[in-house]
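Q: My collaborator sent me two sequences in one message, no labels, and asked for predicted structures for both. Can we handle them in order? The first one she listed is below.
A: Yes, handling them in the order given. First sequence, followed by its structure tokens:
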Amino acid sequence: MYKLLFLSCCIAIAIGATSQSRQQVDSLLKAIDKETADTTRLKLYHKIGNYYMDNNPGKAVDYFEKAQEIAKTLNRPLTVANDFYDIAFCYRLKSDYKKSLINYQQAANIYEQLKDTKRLSNALISIGIVYSETKDFKKSDDYFNQAEVLITGLKDSMQLMAIFNSRGTINDAQKRYDTAMYFLQKAYAFALSLNNEDGITQGLSNIGLTYKHQLKTAKALRYFDTTLALLQKDNAPADVMGALYNNIAATQSQAGNYEKASAAFATSIMYCRQSNNPYIEMENYRNMADMYGQMKSFQQQASYQKKYYDIKDSLFTNDNKNQLTELETDYQLGKKNIEIVKKDVEVTRQKSQRNISIIIALATVLVLAALAFFYSKIKKSNTLLKDKNELIIQQKNELQTLNQVKDRLFSIISHDLRNPLNTLHSYLKLADNETIAVEKRELFKVQTMMAVINTSDMLDNLLAWANVQIKNTQPTIIPVSITDCVHDAVSHVQSQAIQKQLSIHQQINVAVALSDYGILSIALRNLLTNAIKFSAVNKPIYVTSTNNNGKVAITVRDEGIGLTEQQIAEILNRQNNSTNGTQGEKGSGLGLFLVMELLQKINAILQIESEPDNGSSFTILLPVM
């Protein structure tokens, strides 16, 4: 919210100060024409670029690129990277996201080479924001995750607060309100620990907006009221107060409290006029038109819509006037530059004789360059041939990998679907037995439907795993509810456990960990299936989650037939073969192989503890929050 307010204020100031700032730019341009020292010209180009960044980002790009060329000549890589960063920001203002991403990436590459972690993290955050503006939220999350890792290493609480606020706002825009609230609460906690007043008010306001978007108006208003009390205590600027009252009014309107909404709108408009900020005032009129539309007061709705468009049209006209003023100034400055060029011609004539010797030297250089060109062309052809050979080998290896994945996929499907289908077969036999009571047959019918649903879910998960393998896509690592994941996995295997009269006990001491929900669910389901397979009738199975040396440990323990050390080694080396269960259950031996493959995707570890005839414990170690 504050970024938007700040941007609006900048626009308002720029409209009123164009003439004065333009005179400063004219003097800077004149100084560049007279200055010969590269270091001084570099500073002047940066000053002009920063001026145009607010009102003409396209022109700002030209001056930052000129500055960058000088920085390259002076061998200043940090300045070159900073220019890439500024150019990227200008393209972002122009909504040219492709060029913005290219320049942000260039800046990030140089920061990484210079080992400038703080600037690198800022570049990664900016890339994440651009991807969010293009609605590519997956890539946005990836870059925010990279930035968060760097900032955590720096132990920079202010930057962590900023990145959590950004991630919360972006998740709110995706309507992922639980994740948004998670990040916004973390940002607010950092603000409280730092006693940062701006961070506290921003955190409260952002949390209130998220509650508003969830239609939880009572909670939203409580947060807005707390924010209002803090801002009134600190005598906040009028434009900030106007924006907050606009949010309060829109929330009251959403709740149907139209009298309170009207009063808040009036207060917001008063603050907007005090701060001479037409942008927030325009937003008030749009919200008021929506409110009167809800109230079926269409005449009032039309009136406020007209006010909204009147301000919008006037702002557009002012922007055009500023552009015309700049064009006129550029024209006058061009005339002055022509006079300077005429003087330069005289100076050039005097230098012509000196240039004759330079031309001779250049001719020699050209001959040598031609020889070097032909040599380079031959070398390039050889390199191209080598690259093509390497590409052929790479494509061959990829084809072999795809065939292996295909074979694994069909093997896994035949293994994991066998037991559910056997269960379905048993249920259907019992349901057709007319000697069984109607109530029991209805129970069998319900159990059969659950088995069908579970089998369908299992197919979806297996196909998702195959997709990860074939496309080599990255899993989504987010905070995952261990309670829900374990409950889902137990539900999938409950019918198998009932058949063997086994009881599954859950004791979840750590409720959340960083993981991919789908992958973790498949892994737990396979471990539980394995425990059921090798447990005798009437034996218990335990599922627990605990803290283990900075990791979250999820353990599936049974009292079955156990494993030898050789069998454990074969499992960990992905070389295990199929073994029949306690009641002759058969499998393909790929269940634990699937677990090992999937856990590798989420950087998790599988530990096995077992002795023959004393049961087994399979533990998944995940990163803690």
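Q: And the one she listed second?
A: Here it is, processed independently of the first:
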Amino acid sequence: MNDIEALALAAELAQQAASIIMTIRSRGFDVIHKSDHSPVTEADHAAEKAILAGLRAATPQWPVVAEEEVAAGLMTAPADTFWLVDPLDGTREFTAGTRDFTVNVGLISHGRPVLGAVALPAYGELFLGIPGQGAWKRDADGERPIHVRTPPEEGLTVMASRHYADDPRLAEFLGQRKVAALSNIGSAAKFCRLAEGEADLYPRLGRTMEWDTAAPQAVLEAAGGAVLTFDGQRLGYGKPGWENPHFICTGAHV
């Protein structure tokens, strides 16, 4: 299976999961909390089940690492090439009734994201990317290429996590830069807004896991952006424990 075929598979399964999530949201759901106190719902489990079934049937040669399986103790051995899946990124946003939650399906090869599909179910949007080949947005108006923008002279539009909006480290980081606007939203949607040229910078100073970032990193890099650790290294994958260091997402020339 080549990259284009793998991206088509990821896109199909992300959209399928998005439909499942919106159906469950429309009829109501219960919320429980995992051992790390993060919320999980029926939508997380149903979406993950659908994605895993599709990936394992179509690409049995590639292991799948998925958030809820890892939370349940079902660990996948590292491999050169593997899928990273977050079936519902932004569960807090989902349970709070906001729109900023995503479905993330990314493929990793030798520690790097090589393609990704990110669905925004409540917006009816799908973002796709293969670094080095291009990035696209698909919605009710069709599919079109996307690219990061050059920051405007009046200053940066910054995306930040709603849950870390009052973090003094964020204020210190932004105080060193010319900022025109700050928008607080949840989930991997922030990567997507940078990728389509609606924002310029997203510093992440809180905890994230690899399934939170793999697919959206592929999209952002494919659109001309970058995802870097604070020491300037490209964010990598397959780390013990699957936890990311803090990182910065940028558009062009930031």
